[in-house]
Amino acid sequence: MEVIRSDMSDFRARGIRARDALRGDLEGEDLEKYVEERVLTTTLEKALNWARGNAIFPATFGLACCAIEMMTLVSGHVDIARFGAEAFRGSPRQSDLMIISGRISIKMAPIVRRIYDQMLEPKWAIAMGACSSSMGVFNNYAIVPADKFMPIDVHVPGCPPRPEAVMHAILKLRQMIQDDPAMGWRDRYQARGTEELVGDPSAAPTAINVLRPEEESPDA
Prior knowledge:
The protein is mainly α. It has 8 helices and 3 strands; from the N terminus they run H-H-H-H-E-H-E-H-E-H-H. The protein has 2 domains: 9-39; 50-177, 3-Layer(aba) Sandwich (Rossmann fold), CATH 3.40.50. It has a 3-stranded parallel β-sheet. Helix 5 (109-118) links the parallel strand 1 and strand 2. It is elongated.
């Protein structure tokens, strides 16, 4: 109960301060503090990337069974509209994201690339499922992975992947668009310095010290 009362009093104080600012009664340090709390400065490039990351228009484009899972993105259960990516466009000239949902045959690859080339810049592509990423169970002469003939930004594993996995990929793509990439596992687990060192191929393999320089034994 005390928490609710403190929130109500703070809300009332903010309202009074906003009223005084509109009347021109705030001066000096009070006015500077009021402006600093409400003004956000950024660059034009960051503002554009923020807008692009929150208004992704995927192309209405499906190839195989993964397309059924992609359609579920706009359902009420997943609701990709929360992140501004629910407006699937019927024309590549109105789209900025291609979700390659399914296997790609050698005959279909030029058509996929043509549609991708017709999309306006900046544009991105997601390889959804094992087939478009690594040919999956159809690992034969007739199937080709997507990154062999066009650039792919995010790969989604699974056969088929669930809609939640595709939504996770779109969120990862949004981070890339906003120039805020996720921290790699070496940074998350403080594993810098444990990389495998590649030496002379002709030399005999030796044991690799994975300790950091400050953690090395003084007897070494």
